[in-house]
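To the team - iron/sulfur cluster complex, inputs and output below.
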Amino acid sequence: MTAQVEKARAARGDSTGKDITLTVKNLKVYYGTPTGNVRAVDDVSFHVYKGEILGLVGESGCGKTTTAMAILRMVQPPGRIVGGQILLDGIDLVTLNEPALRDVRWNTLALIPQGAMNSLNPVMRIHTQIAEAIQTHEGKQPKDALKKRILDLLITVGLPSRIYDMYPHELSGGMKQRVCIAMAIALHPSLIIADEPTSALDVVVQRVVGQTLLDVKERMGVSMILIGHDMGLQAQLVDRIAVMYAGHMVEVSPVGSIFADPLHPYTQLLIESIPSIKERKPLKLTEGITHDLRNPPPGCIFQERCPKVMEVCRAEKPPLRQIKPEHYVACHLYE
Ligand SMILES: Nc1ncnc2c1ncn2[C@@H]1O[C@H](COP(=O)(O)OP(=O)(O)OP(=O)(O)O)[C@@H](O)[C@H]1O
Ligand code: SF4
Ligand SMILES: [Mg+2]
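Output:
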């Protein structure tokens, strides 16, 4: 472990003894607009342990993709990182120059973008696309070794070797998504960020693709950030969950602890809203983010929708605090 990782852990007060792949500290990403800055990510901190899947959840527009793009330093204008640190194996990506970043991006980080399966090139065979991903970053490879490597990748993501010669339109959505996972792991990254990899798929295929991600984690010991809406699916796949609301991190916890005892009122609503086969529950979470991200209210970010709002919530912003082992929440109820 590098001295920088030790330092980052000490600064964050991590006492688990687990190795940390990524530490995001006080990250701020704003989109400049003519009417002010949209604070898409506003002072967000979290970390990802080596070999774990961290689920990043929250409703549409809360800043999940922006967080992912910031980690890759790929936020597009008018967006920009306005503050914070992103420490990958101890190196601060925020301060790296473009050539150094390019190296890290390809060799250490991999992104499965939102809607990835629709971005496969329709006129290229699957093996050509995977080969291109490998050779762009590693240079020309011997033909036989490359073929073996691609077939091994297909096996790793649970795809039959016959798809090697196929075109994307010949594959189902789940198969295409697994091709995208194969491309993401081709260069042996230490962190994969998968942005809603299952959201366009039906429920059964979601499980299959989710299982593929679990298999990849087990086989490669890779760390992952799995972005999603579906708390039920997250419960089955991830080790810890980080809940975002309106650009803020409101709760971070091991998956068992957050489902057994969700602390933040927003997380409670998210979990109560999971559809159950046994009972039909009324949906408690109906509205979207209610305030303008250009003009967040003083105090707690969730105050306008919180069923438990108190006077202090309107005046003071609650910091993210550890309440139980590894279980953090930003809410005045736990002071
Ligand atoms: N180019 C842009 N200009 C202005 N605001 C933007 C821009 N891109 C994103 N935003 C705003 O930033 C916020 C966060 O967006 P982001 O795409 O990160 O959310 P998300 O959590 O990934 O949502 P989803 O679940 O819908 O993918 C949103 O409120 C969005 O409107
Ligand atoms: S700080 Fe207050 S408003 Fe915010 S979630 Fe907690 S109780 Fe609700
Ligand atoms: Mg998104």
